[in-house]
Amino acid sequence: MVKDIKIMFVTDLHGSERTYRKALNASKLYEVDYLIIGGDITAKKFLFVERENGKYLLDGKETKLEEVSEEASIIGAYMVTGDRNELEVFKSEEAFQKIYREKVETQLTKWINLMDEKLKDSKIRVFWSIGNDDPQFVDEILKSNGIETEGILEMDGTSNSLYLLSYGYVNPTPFNSYREVPDSDIYIKGRDMLSQVDPSRVILNFHAPPYGTKLDLAIIDGERRHVGSKSVYDLEDRFSPLLGLHGHIHESPATDKVGKTIVVNPGSQAYEGILRFGLIVISREIKGIVMKYKVKASTILTG
Question: What is the DSSP letter of 270?
C-alpha cells in the first residue's frame, strides 16, 4: 500500500514570529510530509522605541522593552531602539532601507535556524515562497541559505515526483507593492512552467488567488469584491493542476474548485498571532508503472 501525502500550507505570515513558531509546531503535531510556507513572509511594520533618560517611549508613552519585543513578535514588526537623534536618522530613505534589510535578514536567518532546530528529528520537508509584499532582496537572503523560492521544484526527487510551481507576483493592486505585474504576465509565466511538466502532478503555488472564486473576496469600502488573478483562474481551468495553493487575500479563507482543480487559501490572521493553515491529503495509486495522484481531503484549520 502506498502511503498518502500530507501537506500543510500556511501563507501571509508577515513577520509574525509567534505565528511562524505555531506553524512549525503544527507541522509536527499533524505529522505532515511537507510544510509549504506561502508568500509575504516579511513584516511591513516598524516599532520605533525612543530611549530617554533611562526610560523607553513608544508613540510618546513609557513602555518596557520586553513588552514591545513581545508585541513585535506577535503582530509582525521590526523593533528599532535609539535616542531621539538616532531615530531621526531613519527618516532618510537610504538609512531606512539599510535598517530594513538588516532586520529582514536577521529575522529570516533566525527563522531558518528555528526550522532546522524544531524539525531536525522529523522527515518534514519545508518549501518557502515569496509574495508581493516581500522586497526583492529576500530572494538573495533565502538563496544564500540554500532555499529556492520560485520556479519548478521537484518535491521528492523521484521519477514520479510531485512538482511545486511557485510564483510570488500578483496582478496590480492599489498599494504599489514590490511584486506586481500585468495579469497577462502571470499567465505567460504559468503557461511556460506548466508546459514543461505533467499538470496532474503539479501543485500550483501562485500567491495570487484565482479570480471569481471564494478565495479572492477582499473587503473594499465595506463590500466584498473579487480582486484575484484572471490568469491564475485560466491556468487552473486550462491545465487542471492537481492542487492550487494561494494567499494574498487575508480575509478570504476558503477551499473551492476551478474546473477539476481543488484550490485553497487558508487566509491569514498572523497580525493577531493566530495561525490559519490548509491541511491537504493527497492519495497515491500505482497504475502500471505510473503513480497517480488525487486530492483526497482538504480543510482549513486555526490554532
Answer: G
